[in-house]
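hi!! sorry for the late reply, been swamped w classes. u asked for the two structures so here they r. pasted raw, havent cleaned anything up. first the sequence of the first protein and right below it the tokens
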Amino acid sequence: MKKFALIWPKSTSMEFINYHCVQFIEIFDYLDTRFNNQIIPIDCDLDNLSLNELLKKVVMYDLVGVVMRVNPENVSQSIRTCEILKQVFPSIKIMAYGDLPILLPELFLKYPIDAIHSDGDSELSIESFLHYCNNNEEEKLLGIKLIKNGCLIDTNAGGILDPEYWGFAQLDNPLTKKYCAARQKNRIAVSISRDCPFKCKHCLVYTTQGARERKRGIDSLVQYLRSVYPKYSKIKLWSANFTYDTQYAYEFCNKFIENFPNITWDVTTRVDLLKNKELLKLMYKAGCRQIGVGVESISEIEINYAHKQFSLEQLRQSIMLVQSVGIKFKPLIMLGIPSQTKNSIIATIKYLTECGISIYDIRPSMYTPYYLMDKNMSLPEIENFNRSFYYTALPDVSFKQLLQIQYCVEKYKEILVQ
């Protein structure tokens, strides 16, 4: 039987493993029901697979098509994988989806790739591409740019998939158990929304998905969770701004109280969307135990640069409000925001701890200006655009110090007085 491979090539960093669950295994679930076990899912990050080990998994199959998740942090391995696969399977067709095909489509003109996802939901584009691998009917492609003779050729506009058809991480998929065990958290990750109406220029959600927030149906979510509960009672709910649509949040919480009294979950949102104590109390009652919040910094200059919309007083009030109902406030801060200084980093972390937040609950990552990537950059240069390793030269903080803070935030004072 002819087979297709869905591959996440090995990255320079596997820091954000939840992305894999919702951007790979949920997509596989959608596709698997439509291609009758023809698709082989391979996550090289999750299984720590070298290129040789990846080839061992596919070389004995009659592969006709490969779809590859290509992001800045795995672009080198992605391209090398394509080069090898084209030699092993000369007639194979390869498609790239993910962040890079949307951000830098012209980059792929230089490499042995036949198509890239360009717009619309990736599931529909990948589905149309896999059919194309079998029948060569270009007129039925959706949201794809073909690469021919050094040119990008548009096909039909991409489609928007009804949230009722979004996939889930099914327990009978061997990868799901590994995702759940990653980072020793033993929790399952589920996407409940796509897109983001806030246009933070450093964020990939708005750029690669869109501005109109879409939500998964709560009834279908409840049905899915019944299939994984009580085996998994900890849930990472993937939504850029859970408290943005308050009507949905209220309905969600009431359904959870009714159906899952012992499930605990965490979400993310923005500082300026944490004003409703009644909703927060209901979230706690429904099992919410942590809210990740994009604080970034307490410096007004840095907040504005990151396109956030809150004052220091709003931040203080939101922290107090979340803590008052028993939910952990987990601040997500950025290191390397242009114009950032040693003193502003110290001030941000100090302020958060003085608000009663444990130093170990503060999660730093690198400010990464994806908008500065260029099609003429080398693959190693593009791979530097990585939230774990990107460095913007700062006046009084070295790259080494930023890395030390990122991985040992509790030692920030001694690191910054070196």
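now the second protein. again sequence first, tokens right under
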Amino acid sequence: MAKDRLVITDLELKDPLCRYFNYKNIEFDILPTEYDVPLVDILADKIKGKSDVVLILGINKKSNGFPPSTKQLYEQVSVYNDFRKLRQDITLIIYNEFDVMLDLIVNRQTDFGFSTWLNDLKPLILVDGRMGVNLRNDYKDCKFVELSMPFLQYKTTYPELSTEKNHKPTIDYLCLMADKTKRPFRRLLNEKIIANGIQNHMIYSFKEKIEGFFDDLRNCFSQRVVDGLHWKDGFPSIDYYNQTNLELSAETLCSDHDETFFITEKTTKPIAMKHPFMILSNKDFLKNLRDLGFKTFHEHIDESYDTEPMVAKRVEIIVKNLIELRGQTHKLYTDTQTIRDYNHLHLQHQAGEWRTKFWRTMDEIWRNI
């Protein structure tokens, strides 16, 4: 890297990319979180006279509640500077540790102007999954690099909690879903579950994420543990896994004719807790999971839903499985022990390799910009 390269970012110091920069002795300048002038004016002043500038910006909300820097550059007006002109003299990278692809999709649906503006800037976007054709077409002028999936890090998985599992099942299924308007596939699944009375064979929840949403964790862990969690979503409720034999997870992404692959805690929790699972997500989700080295349960469950391009058909097959497996899931649990043990070990292998893969990818990027 040239000694006179200027790296500017809006990342927080705890981000894995900042850690990478620190260990590699790459100096970087962090943008202020509060300012009285348009952000583009601050940038223009910082890069004045510099010939090699790398700007790394996020597209989702910062932890301090401020809008992402990219949105501010899009929305704020300056009488002195135009970010599109500044962009010609800098290398622009879009990066967040989590949810980059989700934010790209949501912005395309809710703020078409911003998405078009971002695409016109032609940035390098570091994504946290595998891009589907639809997403690539939506941002056709951008260049993408796929990073190691952040939800496979140790800090977002808890494989050690499986040692606390004392499996004494009294019910077939576990299914916990947050009701969000931007997840219509979950509402469809809920309708089919209720229509067929399957909720009577489940530990089941379908509700808005409001105060008290994680109260179940207090049944498993002390107040000290719960209060110390930086992110409650990924923490499994062990009691629920003790009482059930199979988890049905409704992932974050699920739509017709889309094969974008994005893993969250909804997938890693049953693996960490050594549970069989079915997962409602985009087409080929299970195939992509197997490509990462995990095993699925096609020898025990009809997983043909994974190849269906239409959400409704995926839901239909999953619900049919739930109906047919009622009362037989304990045998399923017993028969799948080898797969469950393997997946649990492989999750830890993936988590152990995560940082190394991240650094190698960043080495390659840094050599070529």
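hope this helps!! also noticed smth abt the second:
The chain has two domains: 6-147, 154-351.
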